[in-house]
Amino acid sequence: MTRLIFLGPPGAGKGTQAKTLADFLHIPHISTGDILRQAIQDQTPLGRKAKSYMDQGELVPDQLVQDLVEERLKQPDTQNGWILDGFPRKVTQAEFLQELLKTIGQSGEKVINLDAPDEIVVTRLLGRGRADDTEEVIRRRLEVYRNDTAPLINYYGDRHQLIPVNGDQSPEEVTAALKKIVNP
Ligand code: B4P
Predict the structure, then answer these.
(1) The pTM is what?
(2) Domain containing 170 — which CATH number?
(3) Which pLDDT tens digit goes with each residue over 73-131?
(4) Do strands 2-7 and 81-85 pair parallel, antiparallel, or not at all (unpaired)?
(5) Distance from residue 86's CA to the centre of ligand 1 (Å)
(6) Does 59 sit in the ligand 1 pocket, CB within 6 Å?
(7) Which residue has its alpha carbon closest to ligand 1 atom 23?
(8) Where's it found, cell-wise (predicted)?
């Protein structure tokens, strides 16, 4: 049973690696960023609310992401494990998740802290060129990461759930390191 959370700055490779590992393990890859972008594309009420925040590199309000994560984790395909990519991004979201997992009987998650230096992640994201990958928005996302998300390293470290992985390697090298962790 693998239940993993991917933590790390934007551009560290969370989305890239979480998808590869979820395919390898045949468990769902749950990316809040992907779900929000799909909602924006489909012009749903959630997408309309999320768009302005994402365009500016700000976090979407907790209630919106928490509701979507709760709904997703209650689907039957999560019974054999899951990878959460991009959630939680704040201590308040982590506290919410802890309660939710307890309620639905899915605790015992491990947290991968995928890290890479600022100059590396900025170069990667500028190369990708998604709508929120302009230099100004990337800088803001990094600031938000430092203020809101980085405290989760201590949060999960204190709970002995944190596993550090160096994201400043080729995608194949990162995948190999992750496979060793989930399948030693
Ligand atoms: P996300 O979609 O989670 O995006 P991200 O942090 O920018 O990283 P991503 O996972 O996409 O990129 P990756 O490192 O894989 O979030 C976007 C926005 O959604 C947030 O700013 C926020 O507004 C909102 N949001 C999402 N979750 C939220 C939450 N919980 N609460 C509130 N708001 C939320 O890859 C980046 C690039 O690097 C790619 O081009 C990839 O090919 C390349 N790359 C990856 N690994 C590499 C490697 N090892 N070497 C070289 N290049 C690599």
Answers:
(1) 0.94
(2) 3.40.50.300
(3) 999 999 999 999 999 999 999 999 999 999 999 999 999 999 999 999 999 999 998 99
(4) parallel
(5) 7
(6) yes
(7) 54
(8) Cytoplasm
